[in-house]
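Deadline looming. Please check this record:
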Amino acid sequence: MAAPALPTFTERSVAFARACFNGPVNIAISAACIALLVWLVPPLFSWAVLNATWNGTAAQCREAGGACWAFIREKFWFSVFGLYPYEERWRPGVMLIILVTLVICSTFRAFWNKWLLVAWVVAAPTMLILMGGGVFGLTPVATRLWGGITITGIIAVYGLALGYPLAILLALGRRSNLTLVRWFSTIVIECVRGVPLISLLFMAAIMLPLFLPEGITLDRLARVLVAYTIFTAAYMAEVVRGGLQAMPRGQYEAADAVGLSYWQKMRLVILPQALSITIPSQVNTFIGLFKDTTLVIVIGVFDFFTTLRSALGDPNWLGFPTEAYVFAAGVYFVLCFAMSKYSQKLERDFQPAQR
C-alpha cells in the first residue's frame, strides 16, 4: 500500500489562510497581528540592517543612526575570553573546542557508553590545566581573569553534569523506606529550593570558607560550582521524583517478581522510564538553570552576560547598550532553543511506539 502524498506548499498555504480567517474572531486576531507586524517590522529592519554599521568606529555608528554591530565585532572576543591574557587566549580556545566537542558527542546515543564517561573524566583536569596553567610550562592565570562564554560554559556544563546524578540520589532518597535517608534528602531539597540561587552564592562566598580547615582556601570559581551544583540537584530532584511517582505500581512489582535487587530494579527498569517521561520538565529546568549562570557576578565571577556589560564601559564605545543586550539575548536564545529542539528529538526517540 502506497504512502499518502504529502500536501504541497500551496495546499498548506491555503489551509493556513483558511485557519487564520475562519470566523470573525480569527479574522480580528489575524488583522491585529498583521497590523502589529506592519508597525514594528519596517523600522526594526531599517535600524538593524539598512542603517546598521557593521564595521567602523563609534563616531561612524552615531552618524549612521542605526544599529552599531561594529561594537559587537570589536568586543566579540572579549565576550568570549574576558580578561584572559591576549597572548594566552589559545588555551581557553582549545578548552572550548574540547568542551563543545564532548557536548556534541553526548547528544548522539551512539556515543552513550563508558568511553564517553571516561572522556569527560579525562577532559575535566585537562581543561583545568589548560585554563589555570602553572604546569607543563604554561603561564599561571588566576581565575579572576577568566570570563565570558568560557566561564558560562564551564559553570553550566559541569554544574548541570555534577548536579544531575546528585539529583537522582536525592529523589531516590526522598522516596526511601529508610527514615534517616528520607529525612536528610527532604531537608536538603526543601532548604535549597526555599532560597534563591543568589543567597547560595553569597553563602558559598562568605560562609563556606569558614567551615574549611585553617590554611585551606577554596577558589571562588570552585565555590560557585559547589553552590550551583547543589542548587541544580535540589531542583532536578523534584522533577525526577515526579517521574518516579508517575510509574505504575506494576513496574515495581514486576521487577521484584524477577528477583532484581533495589539498585538493579532502579537502574534497569524504573529510572529509564521515569527519566524518559520527564524529559520536557528536565529540559525546562535545565534552561532556567542555564540562564541563572548570570547571577555568579555577585561573588566576582564574570560570565558571558556580565563581560558583555562591562564592555559597555569602554569610553571609546559608549552609548550602545541595545546592541549588546540584543546580541546577548540572541546567544542565549540560540543555546536554549537548541536544548529545546534536542529534548523534542529525545521525546520522539524514547516513545514506546518508536522503540
User: Anything to note?
Assistant: The radius of gyration is 25 Å. The domain at 158-349 is CATH 1.10.3720.10 (MetI-like fold).
